[in-house]
Fold:
Amino acid sequence: MNFRHRTGGAGEVDIPPALGKAMADYRALLDELENGSIDEATFRHRALRVGLVLRDQDAWILDLSTERWWRYDGVALSSLRFGDAEG
Structure:
């Protein structure tokens, strides 16, 4: 999966493959919750692990309440919603 993220006037940032995998894993978790194969406690526990992607230069964190991914680069936060990504 290749995603691009607009950062306002600064251009685009490449989304790491690990984040693409985390997004797919989160979508699969949502499917499992919706079809009843896992309960809400299991969903939250697994989403916590899926929703944190650490790299050398940044970290991506999933806010479950808004389904928004936040990128922290050591200086500032930027965000990405699932609907904003293509891939």
Q: What stands out?
A: Residues 31 and 87 are 18 Å apart (CA to CA). Helices lie at 17-34, 40-50. The longest helix spans residues 17-34. Residues 1-11 have pLDDT under 50 and may be disordered.
